[in-house]
Every structure is written in structure tokens, then in C-alpha cells.
């Protein structure tokens, strides 16, 4: 069953996304956590779908936390927080499970054949970053179109404008057309626009090959194609397509392998090998033979040409 009294060896992390729970449902549950667990130094903030934020004022950022995707289908005790501050996080996670298990919304989800969000998993800890403004470093004004809050936070930290798209979900059902339209409109007032697509990564974490293929095809047909068409008459526009990390379906987690990129400009596209390419894939990038070891150098190359 889905009832949780304690995070003991019998509790398995079945699905970190609770079946890609909708933002309305998750917002209601996050509010209930605040009602029952929030204090002057600890609060919860609702994000999109299953991705949310817990702020621990004066907390311990060096505590070791395990990504939930690494534990999918496994007992949670093998990945609970460890180190300085772990006792607080474990208590919060266990208390949250006790609160969420009995929520009417979760009971309704079970009755409807949906997965309940009967717990929280705390990870990805850190402090507010102090980053050099992008316009100060590169002399370019940037904007971001994305569904995922961590991307929005990074964008705001470097002074980007974040363009809202109401239908952006971070999964297969996201509003691709809305994101492309927002990006094209933003290009009229910004030097650089970043469009972030999360669906391929989510499909990998689910171990869903069919969804991964669909996500890649959607990215190609609904993002790359329309953007290329939109800049067809722009003589100086460039497009850089790349991943932020590798996430194989077979492992359902992130790896440290180098990611492929394709830089499109008038006259053709460039890959890590420096020559002309016709596709964007790991195999094509490896065939190029050129590794950009420091990721920020790629941005310098992209902007300066």
C-alpha cells in the first residue's frame, strides 16, 4: 500500500514524480506541508509538477543527499541524507510522509488510479549563488524560456529576463508552440534567448524508451524546426543546440559523459570536430574528435563566432 508511518526498509521509492503530478495538485499538498510543518526557519515553496523548494534558513548545505532518480524502485533507507544536518532533513522527510499519506487529495488520486504524492525527497541542496551578470561578462542581454524552476533561478542569477509560458510543464505535454512563440518574440528585444526542454531527461529518469524517442522527435519537430523557420530571413542569427548532461534510459540517472552540441549558422552547422554535420547525436559528436573540456568556453565561441 501507500501508507507510510516511518521511512524504514520496507518503504520503496516507486516514482520520484508521483506519476508526473499536476501543478495544481502538488501546490495543494505543498500548502498543507507549510500549514503543518513550516517554522520561522523552514518553509516550502511550490514549483511545477513534482519539483519544489524547501528553504532552511541557516541550514547545512554540505549534507550529503542522493538524487531520487538513483533510487527509483529501491528502498529509501539506502539514500537518506547523511552528514552534518542529516538528522533534521530525515525528520522533515518522515514528518512530511506522515502528513501527506492521510491527505484527502492523495486518497482521491489512488481511487482514480493515479499515484499519490505521499512523501518528499530532499536533494539538490545549495546556497544562493553569486554570479557575474551575463551582460557584464559578455555584453549581451539574455532571456530564458523554460518550465523548470532551477533553470529560471540560474537565469535570474545572471540577470536574464524569464519569459513565462503558462502551458510549459517540463514534460511531454508541454506547450512547445507557446515556448517557440515566446522565444521568437523575445529575440526582438534580446541578443540571446535560451529555450530549455526537459522532456527527454524526464523520459530517461522514467526508464521509458518510447517516451524518450517521442521527446527527441518533438524537440526536433516542434522546437528546432520552427525556430529555424523563424530566423530564415535573419542574416546574423545563430543557434546552439546542446544538452546540460547525459541521462541514459538504461540507467535512469545522470552520467558525466561529454554532451554533444551543434552550432548552426549561415553556411552550415558545426560539431565538436569543427566540420560540417547533418545530425545532432552523441555518435556524431564523438566522430568529430574535439572535446570542449570547459563548458563556458563554448558560450564564448558561440557569441564571438
Report on the structure:
- With 305 residues, this protein is of the alpha/beta class.
- It is built from ten helices and ten strands.
- The strands form four sheets. It has a three-stranded parallel β-sheet with strand order 6-5-7, with helices on both faces.
- It is globular and about 60 Å long.
Blueprint of the fold:
Elements lengths: L11 E2 L9 H15 L4 E7 L2 E6 L17 E2 L10 H16 L2 H8 L22 H5 L3 E4 L3 H9 L3 E2 L13 H12 L4 E4 L3 H7 L3 H22 L8 E4 L18 E5 L2 E3 L11 H7 L6 H10 L1
Parallel strand pairs: 5-6, 5-7
Antiparallel strand pairs: 1-4, 2-3, 8-9, 9-10
Helix pairs in contact: 1-2, 6-8, 7-8
- The number of helices is 10
Q: How widely separated are the two ends?
A: 57 Å
Outline the low-pLDDT stretches.
Answer: none
> Main β-sheet: number of strands, strand sense, barrel status?
3 strands, parallel
Q: Structural class of the helices, strands and pairings?
A: alpha/beta
Mean pLDDT comes to 91
Keywords:
305 residues; alpha/beta; three-stranded parallel beta sheet; three-stranded antiparallel beta sheet; 10 helices; 10 strands
Short recap of the structure:
With 305 residues, the protein is α/β, with parallel strands linked by helices. It contains 10 helices and 10 strands.
Amino acid at each position: 500500500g501507500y501508507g507510510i508511518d516511518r521511512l524504514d526498509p520496507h518503504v520503496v521509492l516507486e516514482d520520484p514524480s508521483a506519476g508526473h503530478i499536476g501543478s495544481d495538485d502538488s501546490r495543494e499538498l505543498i500548502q498543507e506541508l507549510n500549514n503543518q510543518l513550516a517554522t520561522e526557519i523552514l518553509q516550502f515553496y511550490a514549483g511545477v509538477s513534482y519539483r519544489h523548494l524547501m528553504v532552511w534558513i541557516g541550514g547545512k548545505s554540505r549534507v550529503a543527499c542522493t538524487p531520487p532518480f538513483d533510487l527509483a524502485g529501491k528502498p529509501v533507507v539506502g539514500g537518506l541524507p547523511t552528514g552534518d544536518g542529516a538528522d533534521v532533513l530525515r525528520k522533515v522527510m518522515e514528518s512530511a510522509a506522515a502528513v501527506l499519506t492521510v491527505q484527502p487529495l492523495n486518497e482521491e488520486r489512488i481511487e482514480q488510479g493515479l499515484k499519490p504524492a505521499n512523501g518528499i525527497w530532499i536533494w539538490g541542496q545549495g546556497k544562493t549563488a553569486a554570479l557575474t551578470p551575463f551582460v557584464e561578462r559578455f555584453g549581451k542581454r539574455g532571456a530564458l524560456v523554460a518550465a523548470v524552476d532551477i533553470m529560471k533561478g540560474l537565469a535570474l542569477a545572471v540577470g536574464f529576463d524569464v519569459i513565462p509560458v503558462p502551458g510549459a510543464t517540463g514534460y511531454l505535454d508541454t506547450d512547445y508552440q507557446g515556448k517557440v512563440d515566446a522565444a521568437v518574440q523575445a529575440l526582438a528585444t534580446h541578443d540571446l534567448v535560451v529555450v530549455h526542454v526537459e522532456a527527454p531527461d524526464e523520459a530517461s529518469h522514467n526508464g521509458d524508451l518510447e517516451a524518450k524517442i517521442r521527446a527527441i522527435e518533438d524537440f526536433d519537430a516542434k522546437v528546432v524546426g520552427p525556430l529555424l523557420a523563424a530566423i530564415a530571413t535573419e542574416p546574423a542569427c545563430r543557434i546552439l543546440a546542446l544538452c546540460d548532461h547525459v541521462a541514459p534510459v538504461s540507467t535512469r540517472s545522470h552520467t558525466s559523459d561529454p554532451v554533444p552540441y551543434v552550432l548552426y549558422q549561415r553556411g552550415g552547422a558545426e560539431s565538436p570536430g569543427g566540420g560540417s554535420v547533418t545530425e545532432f547525436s552523441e555518435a556524431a559528436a564523438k566522430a568529430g574528435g574535439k572535446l570542449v573540456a570547459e563548458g563556458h568556453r563554448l558560450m564564448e565561441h558561440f557569441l564571438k563566432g
